[in-house]
Structures are given as structure tokens and as C-alpha cells.
Amino acid sequence: MNLSNDTLSILKNFSDINQNILVKPGQKLQTISTLKNILAEANIKETFDQEFAIYDLTEFLRAVELFDSPAINLNGGSSMTIADAKTKQKVKYFFADKSVIVSPSKSINMPDKYVSFS
To answer: In terms of C-beta distances under 8 Å and separation of at least 24 residues, what long-range contacts does 93-97 make, across chains too?
Structure first.
């Protein structure tokens, strides 16, 4: 799977809120600050097929930036492989344990709009 620039930008913004993230299967990313006062949610183009946790999101993004066109392969286990189709180089990135990750327990349910402007 190739991560789009939009998804990488979202992950970079999420790293400013919380340094770790729990990615759940599907097309939605969520994060919450360690003080639990900032909550963010984003829909992405890519679909993740397994749940995994990244302890240091900034470090993960630096590993992805090592490649010109990074391709991520979720191994179905405790790690993923980040590789470049043009070269033989690859990085094996290990997942964190979910128990050490601060993650939101439920979705954001925003109320209906009260006022709208044109």
C-alpha cells in the first residue's frame, strides 16, 4: 500500500497532538492528546486491513521519508515493511503494544449545526 501525501500530512498533524497512534482497520484515523483535551478524526483514501500501534509517530514518518515512493506492507504480525519499488532497500518497523498507546475509545459525535452562513 502506498500512503498518499494527504495521509502523510494528516499523520504529521496528528503527531503534534499525540506522539503515538492506534490505527484501526478501515479508512479512519483518530488521535487524542495525552491530557485528553484534544480529539481529532480524519477520513483517508487508504484502507488499513489490520489494527496496529505506533509508539513514536514522528520516528515512523522519518522512516517513511527515507524513500522516494514508499510502499508499506503490513505483515499481519508485529511489524510492517517500508520499501521502495525503485530500490532494494527496505525498513522493518515494529509495532508498539496497544496497552502503552493513548487512543480515543469512541468516535466524535458532533451535534447538528445551530447557525449557518452563506
So the answer is: 93/60, 93/63, 95/52, 95/53, 95/54, 96/20, 96/53, 96/54, 96/55, 97/53
Work out the burial of residue 97: count CB atoms within 10 Å of its CB; fewer than 13 is exposed, 13-18 middle, 19 or more buried.
exposed
Environment class of residue 31 by beta-carbon count within 10 Å: exposed (0-12), middle (13-18) or buried (19+)? buried
With beta carbons less than 8 A apart as the criterion, state whether 46 and 7 touch: yes
What's this model's pTM, rounded to 2 decimal places?
0.86
Please report, for residues 9, 12, 46, 88, 117, the alpha-carbon distance to residue 57 in angstroms, rounded to integers and kept in the order given. Answer: 12, 8, 18, 24, 37
35-72 per-position pLDDT tens digit: 989 999 999 999 999 999 999 999 999 999 999 888 99
pLDDT for residue 75: 84
